[in-house]
Amino acid sequence: MPLIDHLCDILLNKRGSDLHLLQGQKPKVRIHGYLDTLDEEPDLDQERMNQMLSEICEPWRWKKFQEHMDVDFAYSLEDRGRFRVNYYYQIHGMGAVLRMIPTEILSIEKLKLPSVLINFAKLRSGLVLMTGPTGSGKSTTLAAIIHHINIHEARYIITIEEPIEFVHQNRKSIFCQREVGKDTHSFAEGLKTAARQNPDVILVGELRDYETISLALSAASMGMLVFGTLHTNSASKTVDRIIDVFPPDEQNKTRTMLADTLRGVCSQMLLRTKDGNGRIAANEILMATQGLSSNIREGNTTNIRNIIMAGKSNGMQLMDDSIEKYLRSNQISGEEAYLKSSDKKRFLQYAH
């Protein structure tokens, strides 16, 4: 049995989300957002770290790690769990983070996400963006939307991920899941190929550079439904981020393309529950309207906030409204609401 499996079992038993390994330190697990040191475990010296990391990593990936100083892949603990793994180097040597991937793909309803997200699953074309910081559950929410399509629609779905996180079984839809570094060289190359394979839906694990974003916009404009993720924390910042990736002389053309193809943005963050026994997702939701298209075209992204407020009856909501809803239903503390909100004045009275 690989040495690391023992630590993975501890993570599973403690119902944690991440296992952190740093050379020279004791292993740590993240539980409901808090880091907990495994004091009973030995320190991770170079020899132990080397053995632990190399024995679950394919030789070609280990070589890549040595050459490029970091690598991403997925690791399965038989039928007990699946993990997204990142190896890296740091000041004291090697480091690794193993993030737990739920084996069961939960539905939008079971995750208690806003039901309006089902509308994204019903779309036939366009671009839908899932945004938020690392570890905010973007992949879990996207998997739930894709799962809804799989159960209710007969479509050909291509996913391009690094690594593949949720493994979808063919139900009504057919899946082609490709891993960057293994099945394709890059997100951009995977997108180029995908566009030629007559898909109905494309999921891009990360829209991280000019070429990938450009190809995603093109695929959406050609009539495909494209889902992608970005590390932004609001709908207006998401639109700005897409435009800013392009050179100044291409930005007007990009605004037009984005205005025509953007169907929605769901920004997400996780909030600690008041009882300390879990986390819940808060969401900001923007959906396409005529007003949104014209504002994107004209570069008035500051007006997106007003569009969301005006669209409340259609299921749109601001992040702070989502946070306030949890606060009023006593699911989160006033301090948590204050810390995670963007309008601090609104929650200042609850901060203590």
Strand order of the largest sheet: 9-8-10-11-7-12-13
The level 1 CATH classification of the largest domain is Alpha Beta
Helix content: 25-40%
CA-based gyration radius? 21 Å
Using the 3D structure, state the CATH architecture of the largest domain: 3-Layer(aba) Sandwich
Outline, from the CA principal axes? globular
Content-based structural category: alpha/beta
Specify the number of helices. Answer: 14
In terms of DSSP E residues, the strand content is 25-35%
H/E element order = HEEEHHEEEHEHEEHEHEHHEEHHHHH
Number of individual domains:
2
- Describe the main β-sheet briefly: 7 strands, mixed
Q: Cα distance, first to last residue?
A: 48 Å
The CATH topology name of the largest domain reads Rossmann fold
The number of strands is 13
Rounded mean pLDDT is 95
Please state the oligomeric state of the protein chains shown.
single chain
List the uncertain runs.
none
CATH homologous superfamily annotation of the largest domain: P-loop containing nucleotide triphosphate hydrolases
Gist?
37% of the residues lie in helices and 25% in strands. The chain has 352 residues and is α/β, with parallel strands linked by helices.
Can you tell me about this structure?
With 352 residues, the chain is α/β, with parallel strands linked by helices. It folds into two domains: 3-101, Beta-Lactamase (2-Layer Sandwich), CATH 3.30.450; 115-317, P-loop containing nucleotide triphosphate hydrolases (Rossmann fold). The protein has 14 helices and 13 strands. It has helices at residues 3-13, 46-54, 59-68, 118-122, 138-152, 187-195, 210-221, 235-244, 251-261, 290-298, 304-310, 319-328, 334-340, 344-347; strands spanning 18-22, 28-31, 34-37, 70-77, 81-90, 93-101, 126-131, 156-161, 174-179, 201-204, 225-230, 262-272, 279-287. Strands 9-8-10-11-7-12-13 form a seven-stranded mixed sheet, with helices on both faces. A six-stranded antiparallel sheet has the order 3-2-1-6-5-4. A hairpin with a 3-residue loop joins strand 4 and strand 5. The chain is globular, with a radius of gyration of 21 Å. It starts with a helix and ends in a 5-residue tail after the last helix.
